Amino acid sequence: MVMITADQAKGLASLPFLKTFVAEAFYYTAGVLMFLIHVGFLAYEGGVSRSKNLLATMLKNLMTLATVGLSFFFFGWWVYNGFALWPMTGPLLGPWTDPDTLSDTAKAAFVPVVGSYPWSDALTPTKGDEFTGVFWMVFALFAMTTSSILSGACIERIKLGGYYVLSILLGSVLWVIAAAWAWNYFGWMTSQWGVHDFGCAIVVHAVSGFFTLGVLLNLGPRVGKFAADGTPKPILPHNISLTMVGLMLIFVGFFFFLACCVIFIPEYTGITNIYGSPVTLSMLAVNTTLALCGGLMGAYVSSKADPFFTISGGLTGIIAVASGMDLYHPALVIIISFAAAYLMPKTAMFIEKLGIDDAVGAVAVHGVTGVISGILPGILAAGYIAQDGQAPINLLGQIGGTLICAVGLGFIPGYIASWILNQLRLLRVSEQEEEMGLDISDLGVRAYPEQVTLQPQ
Question: What is the arithmetic mean of pLDDT over 217-227?
């Protein structure tokens, strides 16, 4: 048995390779466990759908991983690193740009761009560095999550091909531009406007929620959702138990989603957020748990214990505090999460009364809550400066950044892209296919081939 002294153990802990391994393992582990979000989305959306659409719904969500994962490899990762300064303080960084002609800030921002191309050595097995690959995986999972938010809202009537186009546009272009601007150390919204979005409430949830709203306006409601006078009629989940289990898995996955919002690399003296200011995993543990609890309680009270709205409130609570949770006191987290989740069922029902069929309440849970979350730091954390040289958090910056992302990179592109697909007859299945069910019309199989007949006693 080999014995080492305390001083020797301290020396080992300071070895660069050990620090690198621990940091790399942190992202690898958290990234893989983030896949629980997508396991949850499969169950969540499958349970909400009717039995005749179960397999098509789950397959659509499964293939989101493939479409967005591949497109994020070929261009999405480059978009994140290439658009940080454009169009405000520098050119769109690309292979045609000479780094020597750039400002000092642009030169520093140019470094990760070089490693973002799919042919870069940074992602190869033998020449790659220790971090680019795991960072890519984490960002790709963020992108898949963004597109999965769209997936649930448009179940039971969207064409698979049209959905794949929209998922790639949202997951590998639009939210990535938002992240480059507002969730990036070099982003112009960060440096010039002071936009703060620790947990991606703006760049993921607000963008995807309002992109989804634009798509739903062109997609239209499911057959039978509204009466002739416009009164909404319930289309009940075929398996609410599966839906609730799915959301519980999403909750677990979001603990790791938020863990991947911290920066932990050997060159740093500690853990920071994407803006360079210090954070702790202790903060994540306390505030994420309290946001979940507060959200469940708020939606439970507001919906009078409706199971679907209640459990959706947990996710609402987490999103509501995500932008500023690294700065909020736990008591404030409880108040924000409760209030946002209390509003969520009422917002979802209001959207339904407007004639919009959002099957899972994605616009209310992600879009509206993401906007609320994005604006609140401008009030509750105003004046905080993440790093020297960056603008302080301020209300105008938070409002402006949130609206540009939600409307400019969310709603408007979602509406235009889905309108074009609709004109090309690539957006919605026929009424006959919808009545038959997408499992049969798209896949030719049933999820439950054995029919159970109840005999009277």
Answer: 95
Query: Do 140 and 73 contact (CB within 8 A), yes or no?
Result: yes
Quick check: helix, strand or coil at residue 386? Answer: coil
SS (H, E, C) 117-128: CCCCHHHCCCCC
> For residues 406 and 369, what is the distance between their CA atoms, to the nearest angstrom?
11
Element (H, E) at 47: helix 36-48
CA distance 445 to 283: 47
Q: Are 367 and 347 in contact (CB under 8 A)?
A: no
Q: Is 16-279+385-440 assigned to CATH 1.10.60?
A: no
Owner of token pair 């690959």: 133
Residue whose C-alpha is closest to residue 258's, from 204, 300, 306: 204
> What pLDDT does residue 140 have?
95
Residue 92 near residue 82 (C-beta atoms within 8 A): yes
Cα–Cα dist 57/320, whole Å? 27
Query: Which region among 54-58, 134-138, 172-176, 198-202 has the lowest average model confidence (pLDDT)?
Result: 134-138
Residue 219 near residue 427, CB atoms below 8 Å: yes
Give Cβ neighbours of residue 175 (< 8 Å, ≥ 6 apart): 142, 143, 146, 203, 204, 207, 208, 409
Q: Residue ranges of the domains in the chain?
A: 16-279+385-440
How far apart, in whole angstroms, are the C-alpha atoms of residue 106 and residue 87? 12
Q: Are 54 and 270 in contact (CB under 8 A)?
A: no
DSSP string, 49-88: S-GGGHHHHHHHHHHHHHHHHHHIIIIIHHHHHHSSSTTT
If you search the block for the tokens 């109840």, which residue do you land on? 454
pLDDT in tens, 91-148: 665 555 666 666 676 666 666 777 788 878 888 877 667 778 888 999 999 999 999 9
> Tokens for 411?
């709603």
Mean pLDDT of 312-329: 97
Whether residue 8 has pLDDT greater than 70: no
The model's pLDDT over 78-93, given as tens digits with 9 standing for 90+, comes to 999 888 888 877 666 5
Q: What is the pTM of this model?
A: 0.91
Which residues make Cβ contacts (< 8 Å) with residue 357, sequence separation at least 6? 216, 220, 221, 222, 225, 226
For position 64, what pLDDT does the model report? Answer: 95
